Amino acid sequence: MIYSFKGHIPVIHESSFVHPLAAVTGNVIIGKNCYVGPGAAIRGDWGEIILEDGVNVQENCTVHMFPGKSIVLKEGAHVGHGAIIHGANLGRNCLIGMNSVIMDDAEIGEECIVGAMAFVKAETVFLKRQLIVGNPAKAIKEVSEEMIAWKTAGTKLYQQLPSDCHESLQEVEPLRKLPKHRPVQEDFYKTLQEMKTNNKE
């Protein structure tokens, strides 16, 4: 669902994937290898929204702003399910946790991790590599090398997902019973805690 608005037509690189149940409107520029999930709304009706290369905006997220603003989600920014980005800028390779809210003119620094359900007040600025949690959100410590390596690995999965969707995603009728040889999905990513446990062994 790609819509023009007052002469602005979204620009989406062919390597990116926008799910048909997402809505991208107006003055939006989406770079290479980006993923936009079903139910996401990216509304460039009142200002410009730029998703740099490798950004993912997952299911049921909203990206919008007040009139006259422009925002950038920098390379590798990772926006978890149900998050709201309203007039905020996201730094390179940051992670925005599920159902968090980032308000107007806030700045999330490079490689920051925002916890699930955090509320970042308008005009709040967080510098590079902060772990940000709570309501109102506060930085509680620096993001470790281990944490950012885990985040980066997860984002790489989303950077591969557009290609996988272009190759294999298709609308189908459901099966009415389980087939005898149902495909088994690969276990190729660990939680942060599982990764820590494996590294200790």
Short account of what is shown:
The protein is α/β, with parallel strands linked by helices and 201 residues long.
Total beta strand runs: 20
Give me the CATH architecture, please: 3 Solenoid
- Please give the largest β-sheet: 9 strands, parallel
Name the CATH superfamily classification: Hexapeptide repeat proteins
Radius of gyration equals 18 Å
Fold blueprint:
Layout: E1 2-3, E2 11-12, E3 17-18, E4 23-30, E5 35-36, E6 41-51, E7 56-57, E8 62-64, E9 71-73, E10 78-79, E11 84-86, E12 89-90, E13 95-96, E14 101-102, E15 107-108, E16 113-114, E17 119-120, E18 125-126, E19 130-134, E20 137-142, H1 145-168, H2 192-200
Parallel strand pairs: 1-4, 2-4, 3-5, 4-6, 5-7, 6-8, 6-9, 7-10, 8-11, 10-13, 11-14, 12-15, 13-16, 14-17, 15-18, 16-19
Antiparallel strand pairs: 19-20
Q: In words, what does this structure look like?
A:
- By secondary structure, this protein is α/β, with parallel strands linked by helices.
- It has one domain (2-142): 3 Solenoid (UDP N-Acetylglucosamine Acyltransferase, domain 1), CATH 2.160.10.
- It is 16% helix and 32% strand.
- The protein contains 2 helices and 20 strands.
- The chain has helices at residues 145-168, 192-200, and strands at residues 2-3, 11-12, 17-18, 23-30, 35-36, 41-51, 56-57, 62-64, 71-73, 78-79, 84-86, 89-90, 95-96, 101-102, 107-108, 113-114, 119-120, 125-126, 130-134, 137-142.
- The strands form 3 sheets. Strands 1, 2, 4, 6, 8, 9, 11, 14 and 17 form a 9-stranded parallel β-sheet that branches.
- A hairpin with a 2-residue loop joins strand 19 and strand 20.
- The chain starts with a strand and ends with a helix.
- The mean pLDDT is 94.
